[in-house]
Amino acid sequence: MPIIDNKEIKHVLISRIDAIGDVVLQLPTCIYLKQLYPDVIISFLGRSYTQPIIEACKAVDNFMNYDDLKPLSKKEIAALFKEKNIDAIVHEFPKSQIAEAAKKAGIKIRIGATSKIHHLFNCNKLIRLNRAESNLHEAQQDIYMCGPLGVTHIPTIGTIARYYKDNFKPLVELPAQFKNLLTDDKFNLIVHSKSGGNGREWDMDNFTALINGLPLDKFRVFITGSFKEHQLFKTWIPQLPPSVIDLSGKMDLDEFIAFIYHADGLLASGTGPLHVAAASGIYTLGLFPVSKSINATRWAPLGIRAEHLESDSDDLSSISVDMVKEKIEGWLQ
Question: What is the CATH number of the domain that holds 153?
Fold first, then answer.
C-alpha cells in the first residue's frame, strides 16, 4: 500500500457528482491511480444517471450514489464514510455537504481546490486550481488534483486518450431491437445534434445538409437525443433521407451507452455522448467554440479515434458542412 505523509492509503474516494461528460473525463484519474497503486481500492461518488458510465470503468472498484446520500444529514454521511474505511477523498466536484461530512468522518487525506472557500475549512490538502482559467485539459486537471496522493506527473493528452482502450466497456448488453439496427456493410454513424443546453450547438440546417450530402450507400445514419429533443425533431426528421433512423427518446442511458459502444462513429458538440463515444474507442468528432472554458483546450474528446473541430468565435458558425463532411468521409478510408 502507498504511504503518503506517513499514512497508509488503502481506500480512495473520488467525488464527482456532476454530468456525464465530466464523469467520463474523470475516469482516467481512476485508471492512472490504479496503475500507480494496483492494490488500492478506488470508489467513485457519482449520481444515479452517471452510474452506468462509472461502472463501465474497470479501474473503479465501488460506486457510491450521491442521490442516496443527498437527503441524509452530514452526521449520517460521515458514519457511512467511516463504515467504508475511506483513507483519502478527492473533491473533484466541490460540494460543501460532502466536504464537511468527510472531515467529520475523520478521513485522513481530504483534497480540495482553494477556489472554494468551504475547502479551506474542511480539507487538509489544498490544491491551487481555477478550472476555468487553467490551460490544462479537464482530464489533466482531474489528475492534477491528486498530487497529495503521490501523483508527480500529469500525463499528456495522447497518453490519457489511450487509457480508455482496455478500461472502458459498458456492462449492459445492447438489446436485440437496437443491436439489429447496426449493419456490417455500412458505417454506423450516430448524429447527436443537441446538447441539452450544455454546449454550443451547430445549426440544424448544417446537420440537414451534412446528412443529405453523405453517401448513404456507405453510411447508415442514426439520430439520437432525449425524449424532449425527439419532440423537437418531428419537423426536422422529414427533411432527411428515408433511410435515416430516428432513435431519439427511445433508449435509456444504459442502452444508449451500449449503442454508442457498438456503433462506428459519432458526431456531436461538446456534450456527454461525445465523451462516451471517445472513451468507447469509436470514431468521434466534436464541434467546439473557441471561447475559453468551453473550448477544445479543456473539453476535447479523448480517445484513440477522437478528434475535434474548433470555430473561430463564440458559436459554431465558422465550422462549415464541408469541413465536417471531409472528416466523417475520411473515416471510411
Answer: 3.40.50.2000
Which run of H or of E encompasses 309?
A: strand 306-310
Which amino acid belongs to residue 317? Answer: S
Residues 251 and 292 in one domain: yes
- 25-42: pLDDT as tens digits: 999 999 999 999 999 999
pTM: 0.97
Shortest CA distance to 107 belongs to which of 33, 35, 43?
43
Q: Is residue 169 part of a domain?
A: no
301 within 8 A of 274, measured Cβ to Cβ: yes
Could you report how far apart the first and last alpha carbons of the chain are, in Å?
Answer: 47
DSSP designation for 57: B
Contact 142, 28 (CB under 8 A): yes
| Cell output for 159 | 497518453
Q: Provide the sign of the torsion angle of the four alpha carbons 72, 77, 79, 84, taken in this order.
A: positive
Structural domains counted in the chain: 2
Give kind and range of the element (H or E) at residue 228.
Answer: helix 227-232
Taking only the tens place, the pLDDT of each residue in 110-149 is: 999 998 889 989 999 999 998 988 999 999 999 999 999 9
